[in-house]
């Protein structure tokens, strides 16, 4: 008995260091992975179509508010959509399309890079899944259970106080409840209800006005040119072919130019800012196609018109609230933490310019969200720690374009209409005068100081180079001593000559005839 207790104690003492090391390693791993866990998802949804403006209500649980979203309103986890009795709506999440019938309530339970989980509280919904990968990540629940897709297809799910039903027009569904599960094959309809246990029966698929309306939406002419240049998982990519034209540039690759816009049209002008957690202020474009070009890619001026540059093809592009750079208005400090629209100016990013997120993210997220246009970002840690400081050191092609400002202290519930998003000419002129004054002072300072070498223009940016680097503004140069401007070979030869002459100089100093007379009283003893 004594030997058994001794063995237990020795075994326990031997396991204590191993347990402590394992616990320490686990804590370190959690600490290192914490920033990545805080990254926003790359996948996003949007309001793609409405049969009647104002007929859709969005209940935002994060902010505790309800409002009528416009077309292109971003949608994410926690949002609840409700259509009124006379409105139908269409929602897109990447390549997935959801159509809501009149009087339908749908909760977006989870939308992230791994899953799309929805919950139909009541009403009727038709789901179109076109990607096998996203079909495996999709789930639609009702009060009676949950439906998962076996593969791509078109499915209809209904829910009310009497139970649920599901119809497979194409593909196959799997229904799972706490006490049963079964498959619903193509051309079948399952009616499900709970009476002490989950019960169901099969019936022919339903055909009504809602089904015919959804089928008509699928029959719209689609050229499918966009799929050559952008991934179908880019939310809003389906609208590009109907509203614009594609061309190719030797320098930037594929370019998309919108049709039927005014001659003075510019990106990020017609729209408003909406608060969408966890990204914060997000752009909602008023153009019918205005989602993908404002949340992915970059913009350039090509042949006198604005053109959208999607950049490198990615199977899963990462959503951003707005591909713009921010600049505070004169005398205003730019902040993004409050729930009020920022009083600032903004301008679209150009190719190879780094997007700086002002929300919580990790260096890996900064690289992923910029991957379509910037292959390498060396200072991603600086962007994460101090976004405003990082933006000051970047060069922007569109910085000097006309900017507009939001009204000061405008509450989120009453965003100004598009007509108020105008350029403040007085502030702009004052800003230009201050800029000219600073430039003149800098020129006078540079002329008054000697230059070490003639000024050379900055090297042109190579397309494959990372664009994020410190500013190349000329700094006042220190005074250069004469020997520092000599060639390296001459400096080395002078040093050798100096060492060779040193003994002769020492002998000359010991010569009494050349020794300097010292004053009396300063003799050394």
Descriptive account of the structure:
By secondary structure, the chain is α+β, with helices and mostly antiparallel strands. 24% of the residues lie in helices and 27% in strands. It has ten helices and 25 strands. The strands form five sheets. The chain has a 17-stranded mixed beta sheet that branches. A two-stranded antiparallel sheet has the order 18-19. A two-stranded antiparallel sheet has the order 20-21. The longest helix has 36 residues, at 2-37. The chain is globular, with a radius of gyration of 33 Å.
Question: Main sheet?
Answer: 17 strands, mixed
**What is the 3D shape?**
globular
**Tally of individual helices:** 10
Q: How much is the radius of gyration in Å?
A: 33 Å
Strand segment count: 25
The helix content, as a percent range, equals 10-25%
Strand content: 25-35%
Mean pLDDT: 78
């Amino acid at each position: 008995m004594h030997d058994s207790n001794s063995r237990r104690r020795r075994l326990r003492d031997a396991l204590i260091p191993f347990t402590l090391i394992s616990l320490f390693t686990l804590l370190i791993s959690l600490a290192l992975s914490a920033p990545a866990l805080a990254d926003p998802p790359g996948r996003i949804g949007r309001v793609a179509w409405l049969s009647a403006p104002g007929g859709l209500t969005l209940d935002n649980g994060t902010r505790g508010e309800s409002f009528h979203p416009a077309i292109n309103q971003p949608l994410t986890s926690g949002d609840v959509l409700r259509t009124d009795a006379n409105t139908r709506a269409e929602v897109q999440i990447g390549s997935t399309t959801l159509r809501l019938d009149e009087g339908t309530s749908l909760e977006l339970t989870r939308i992230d890079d791994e899953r799309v989980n929805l919950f139909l509280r009541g009403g009727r919904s038709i789901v179109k899944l076109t990607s096998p990968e996203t079909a495996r990540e999709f789930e639609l629940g009702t009060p009676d259970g949950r439906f998962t897709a076996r593969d791509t297809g078109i499915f209809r799910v209904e829910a009310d106080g009497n139970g649920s039903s599901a119809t497979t027009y194409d593909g196959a569904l799997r229904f799972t409840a706490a006490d049963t599960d079964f498959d619903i094959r193509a051309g079948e309809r399952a009616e499900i209800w709970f009476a002490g246990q989950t019960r169901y029966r099969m019936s022919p698929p339903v055909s009504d006005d809602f089904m015919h309306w959804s089928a008509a939406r699928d029959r719209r002419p689609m050229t499918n040119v966009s799929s050559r240049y952008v991934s179908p998982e880019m939310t809003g990519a389906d609208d590009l072919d109907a509203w614009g034209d594609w061309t190719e540039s030797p320098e930037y690759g594929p370019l998309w130019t919108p049709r039927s816009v005014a001659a003075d049209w510019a990106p990020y002008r017609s729209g408003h800012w909406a608060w969408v957690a966890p990204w914060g202020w997000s752009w909602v474009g008023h153009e019918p196609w205005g989602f993908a070009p404002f949340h992915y890619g970059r913009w350039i001026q090509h042949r006198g018109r604005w053109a959208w540059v999607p950049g490198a093809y990615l199977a899963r592009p990462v959503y951003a609230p707005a591909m713009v750079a921010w600049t505070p208005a004169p005398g205003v400090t730019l902040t993004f933490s409050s729930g009020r629209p920022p009083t600032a100016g903004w301008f679209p990013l150009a190719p190879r310019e780094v997007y700086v997120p002002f929300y919580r993210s990790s260096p890996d997220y900064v690289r992923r969200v910029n991957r379509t246009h910037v292959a390498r970002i060396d200072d991603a840690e600086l962007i994460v720690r101090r976004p405003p400081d990082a933006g000051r050191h970047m060069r922007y092609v569109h910085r000097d374009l006309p900017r507009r400002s939001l009204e000061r202290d405008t509450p989120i519930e009453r965003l100004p209409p598009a007509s108020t998003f105008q350029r403040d000419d007085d502030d702009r002129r004052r800003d230009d005068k201050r800029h000219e004054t600073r430039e003149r002072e800098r020129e006078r300072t540079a002329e008054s100081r000697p230059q070490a070498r003639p000024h050379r223009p900055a090297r042109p940016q190579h397309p494959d180079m990372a664009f994020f680097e410190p500013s190349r503004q000329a700094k006042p140069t220190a005074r250069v001593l004469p020997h520092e401007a000599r060639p390296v070979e001459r400096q080395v030869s002078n040093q050798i000559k100096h060492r060779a002459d040193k003994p002769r100089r020492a002998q000359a100093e010991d010569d009494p005839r050349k020794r300097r007379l010292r004053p009396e009283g300063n003799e050394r003893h």
